[in-house]
């Protein structure tokens, strides 16, 4: 796969990019710097995932070859990551701290995507459709889900597939009834009863800090058969496969959550902090929606987001977790 990262060869080239791209993520590095080499694959991975033409550009600046740029921006330690938004410095991270780098970049990417997704009536402020900041030091790691391995039991086939749940786009349910009706059904509803079972494998070993579930049932009008939001959610980490419904009722969940009306914010999202010590080395999660909050027969889920920290890659060799220790 061709790299999307731009190598900066002059101050003029760099300043041109600051004008043409809304966000510019800059890696100030040096050939002799050990921590720079260690974090380089993570920077490249973020570049592949998040680069957007004229919106988010990832660039590398060799401080020994581009002394004028390094001097202009006061670079004194390597690596230093600077994130520019509309030409101005938005964030500065010194040292090889992958967790912080990922969290900051993904937050800005979500804002940029939110402000660019014109079909969804995003506000001009550039904020993404979800409310609130991510937990300090943690990032959105939904992209670590192994999409091909996703499974969902008891879902009604008239609605979206399991993949819509991890789509970062603003749910049509937030656009009002008419807008939602004109689009494909980008949510999931249970079929024969209110229970849903989901298996979510990951590409790497994760530390999972928080889960966000978005559920946007329409208001009851003529059709009183509206679906419910989830009420009881049971979570099982590191299962080799999806559980059966009867099997799940016999196995104690690692964490069981009961949601009530006050847990859902205005975007229809409930934020669920996990018992972090129990979710430190997670390769998969099973979600069991036991029941819904109401008297109906169906449960609806629009989106699921996973927040935490990535660890080792499962396939492409070891990706060590690194801090900002000097040297190699």
Number of distinct helices? 6
CATH class of the largest domain: Mainly Beta
| Overall mean pLDDT | 85
Q: Look at the helices and sheets and give the structural class.
A: alpha+beta
Region (Disordered): 113-135
Domain Thioredoxin: 1-110
Keywords: Disulfide bond
GO molecular function: protein-disulfide reductase activity
Core attributes:
328 residues; alpha+beta; Glutaredoxin; Jelly Rolls; 2 domains; 8-stranded antiparallel beta sheet; 5-stranded mixed beta sheet; 6 helices; elongated; disordered C terminus; DUF1000-domain-containing protein; disulfide bond; PITH_dom; protein-disulfide reductase activity
Give the topology.
Layout: E1 6-7, H1 11-20, E2 23-29, H2 34-50, E3 56-62, H3 67-72, E4 80-85, E5 88-94, H4 98-116, E6 139-140, E7 151-153, H5 177-182, E8 188-189, E9 196-214, E10 230-237, H6 245-250, E11 255-258, E12 269-273, E13 282-292, E14 300-301, E15 303-313
Parallel strand pairs: 1-3, 2-3
Antiparallel strand pairs: 2-4, 4-5, 6-15, 7-9, 8-14, 9-12, 9-13, 9-15, 10-11, 10-13
Helix pairs in contact: 2-4
Family: Belongs to the thioredoxin family.
InterPro entries: Galactose-bd-like_sf (IPR008979), PITH_dom (IPR010400), PITH_dom_sf (IPR037047), Thioredoxin (IPR005746), Thioredoxin-like_sf (IPR036249), Thioredoxin_CS (IPR017937), Thioredoxin_domain (IPR013766)
Keywords: Disulfide bond
